[in-house]
UniProtKB/TrEMBL annotation, chain A:
SUPFAM superfamilies: Fe-S cluster assembly (FSCA) domain-like (SSF117916)
Family annotation (Pfam families): FeS_assembly_P, Zn_ribbon_PaaD
Domain MIP18 family-like: from-to ranges: 20-87
InterPro entries (UniProt xref): Fe-S_Maturation_MIP18, FSCA_dom_sf, MIP18-like, PaaD-like, Zn_ribbon_PaaD
Name of the protein: Phenylacetate-CoA oxygenase subunit PaaJ
Length: 168, 257
């Protein structure tokens, strides 16, 4: 790890863009950067790069594929020595998903997570909108869906079931 | 569990004190054994959504176990090559799945405990803080899942009510062990067990009452109750579960697919 640097260098920014462009293995419509799981890219020596990645869920099996994909992309771009480390703290939150990431999820048919209420005594409860027809009249079928990060819901208007990226 | 996941946070990998390692092993064993029990439901749950839900909860627990084992040693060796008496899990988590009500009662008791414990560990700066801060958000969903099912079964039909009541009573004697020390010392960052036990009881009591269930009255510690899991003593069904869980790895060391 490089110490005493003020911020990322031009090379680090470039490598971060490359690592960040890797698609999520389970939700390939969003990139790792948009998902908010890429924490840092450090150049620690000539041809040597350390990437910090945080898992969405503690048991997320996709993290190993993410690491392999990042290593491959950086190898292809001339970095022979890549190490991907997992960091747990601070814990990932669905608030880390970018606006563009949310837009892509909705377009893909997955209702994006609602933002956590920041403060104030009366948090506003936002309805979960059906990604197919846009109705806010939707019901929860199961708190757990095809992956740990999603819940299964059904739209009462168009009757289609859909996944909701649940708030974490 | 073939490949080592990746490194954990810097500074947590080495130099753990013996007390902390004992605590890490106990928490890891709880998570792994319950994960395996929940995995046994795959293909057998009352409905497809429930199959998926229990598998997802099992996966979260497995993730916790892997991170905790990595603090202690090699995860595969710890999971697959220890004998029954070396496991430090609560007897509660090794109890057979029983009917669905038994599984839900076990989930209610355990997820409430884990949510409260991790919530406290997350506020400290000890070796478990980073994992606890992350896992507690997932365990919130486990507890909510157990609570919703407890309400639905307890306040459901006469049959579901009776089964839920029977399950809550049957597992009650396993709940005192959660608040006993995990080893000789206190490896759990000074979490106040007494206060944890009181919070647990009030939380579980509130759910059972809303579900129109009777809060069991039997003893939770002392004679005729469970409480030796942390010392490596386990109930009869645990050996069979372990044999199934470890069989593949022991028969084919290093197998992967």
């Amino acid at each position: 790890m490089v110490t005493g640097t003020g911020g990322p260098t031009a090379l680090e920014s470039e490598l971060r863009a490359l690592a960040g462009s890797v698609p999520d293995p389970e939700l390939p419509v969003v990139t790792l950067e948009e998902l908010g799981v890429l924490r840092a890219v450090h150049v620690s020596g000539p041809g040597r790069v350390e990437v910090e990645l945080t898992p969405t869920y503690t048991g997320c099996p996709a993290i190993e594929t993410m690491s392999t994909d990042i290593e491959r992309v950086l190898h292809e771009n001339g970095i022979p020595d890549v190490s991907v480390v997992t960091v747990l703290s601070p814990a990932w939150s669905t608030d880390d998903i970018s606006a563009e990431g949310r837009r892509k999820l909705a377009e893909f048919g997955i209702a994006p997570p609602r933002p956590h209420s920041t403060d104030g005594p009366v948090p506003l409860t936002l309805a979960i909108r059906c990604p197919h027809c846009g109705s806010t009249d939707t019901e929860l079928l199961s708190r757990f869906s095809s992956t740990a990060c999603k819940a299964l819901r059904r739209c009462s208007a168009c009757r289609e079931p859909f996944d909701h990226f649940k708030e974490l | 569990m073939n490949s080592t996941p990746t490194d954990t946070d810097p500074g947590t990998g080495a130099g753990l004190g013996a007390e902390t390692a004992t605590a890490a092993l106990a928490l890891a064993d709880d998570a792994l054994i319950l994960s395996h029990r929940l995995g046994e439901w795959a293909g057998h749950a009352p409905e497809l959504e429930e199959d998926v839900a229990l598998a997802n909860i099992a996966l979260d627990l497995l993730g916790q176990a892997r991170i905790l084992y990595t603090l202690v040693g090699d995860e595969d060796e710890l999971a697959y090559l220890r004998e029954e008496r070396a496991f430090r899990n609560l007897q509660l988590v090794e109890q057979p799945n029983g009917d669905f009500a038994h599984t839900i009662a076990r989930q209610l008791y355990f997820s409430t405990y884990q949510r409260l414990l991790y919530g406290r560990l997350a506020t400290g700066d000890g070796p478990f803080a980073a994992l606890a801060a992350k896992a507690v958000k997932e365990v919130d969903y486990h507890q909510d899942h157990a609570e919703q099912w407890t309400l639905r079964l307890g306040d459901g039909t006469a049959e579901s009510h009776e089964r839920m009541e029977r399950a809550c009573t049957a597992l009650w004697r396993f709940t005192g062990e959660m608040f006993q020390p995990v080893g000789d010392g206190d490896g759990l960052d000074g979490v106040d067990r007494q206060e944890l036990a009181e919070s647990w009881l009030s939380s579980v009591t509130a759910v059972l009452r809303r579900a129109t269930l009777t809060v069991p009255e039997g003893p939770r510690s002392g004679a005729w109750t469970a409480g030796a899991g942390r010392q490596g003593l386990h109930t009869e069904s645990f050996g069979r579960m372990l044999a199934e869980m470890q069989h593949l790895h022991r028969s084919h060391p290093g197998a992967s697919w």
